[in-house]
Amino acid sequence: MTPAKTDRTPVPPQAPSAQAAAPARGPGSAALRALLRNRLAVAALAVLAVMLIAAVLAPLIAPCDPNTQDLLLRLRPPVWQHGGSSAHLLGTDQLGRDMLSRVIYGTRVSLLVGAGAALLAGVIGTAVGLASGYFGGWTDRVLMRLADVQLAFPAILLALAIVGFLGSGLWYVILVLGFTGWVSYARVVRSEVMSLRSRDFITEARAIGVTDGTIMRRHLLPNVMAPLATIGTLHIAAAIVAEASLSYLGLGVPKETVTWGSMLSDGQLYLGTSWWLAVFPGAALMITSLAVNITGDALRDVADPKAYRR
């Protein structure tokens, strides 16, 4: 009896399905695509990039030294008005200083103060929020009552009092705005940590003997970075406006340092005759703050997974 023949025809390999061939896309790439689809956010990021480049390369971009005075050229209008000059595209101020150069150099102070104050406030507020939300009990009550006490004082009045006591200076302004802005960070981090501390991965970490500091640093802190980035972005805009307010009142950065706030203070006396002295630094302040706020709103939407899965 002859054995049955076995069909040994090789089976051609199946082509991988499109779903299997497609590379896995994580939430980070989805969030980036959602951010790039937001044209307003892209425009805001482009504005901030231009501002950052102007701040870093101010000595190379500015046509003149911002503090060089020439009384023979005082109050010259912008180039498109009668009497303007191509040597001073945005005109000159009451001391003959080039307005374009001063606006460019003012960008450096505004961005430095905004970023420095947001970073300092974020570090303080995150530490307070982590401790308050994780330990709870009397630690939470004491820290939150301190936050309530600070919220009872208007931020600008508290900043004025501290600056008046310490004196004017760039780093003093950063310290003041940082120490007066930590409460919002602490409250958001506290609420996030309180919702996370009862999760299984935190309970298991405690069960195997992981220390509280390690749990807060390695398990809780990464989970609160998204809201922190959003609050930090919005706080940069608030710090820029606060610095301009302090400089406007003469209690911020010293007069020899060019700031948009001091330019607004000098230009208010010439609004009726030389409008450009106040309009250009005011426009730069408004555009920068608006771009930072739009970027913060976009980051808040991207931080929510439901926002970029629509």
Descriptive notes:
- The chain is mostly helical.
- 65% of the residues lie in helices and 0% in strands.
- The longest helix has 37 residues, at 99-135.
- 34% of the residues are buried.
- Residues 1-7, 14-24 and 306-310 have low confidence and may be disordered.
| DSSP helix fraction | 55-70%
- Beta-strand share of residues: under 5%
- State the total count of DSSP E strands: 0
What radius of gyration results from the CA coordinates?
28 Å
Structural class call reads mainly alpha
Low-confidence spans: 1-7, 14-24, 306-310
Largest sheet: none
User: How far from one another are the termini?
Assistant: 68 Å
Index terms:
0% strand; disordered C terminus; mainly alpha; 14 helices
In short:
With 310 residues, this protein is mainly α.
SSE topology sketch:
Elements: H1 18-21, H2 27-37, H3 39-56, H4 58-61, H5 99-135, H6 137-151, H7 155-166, H8 170-179, H9 183-196, H10 200-207, H11 212-220, H12 225-248, H13 260-267, H14 276-303
Helix pairs in contact: 2-14, 3-5, 3-14, 5-6, 5-8, 5-9, 5-12, 5-14, 7-8, 9-12, 12-13, 12-14, 13-14
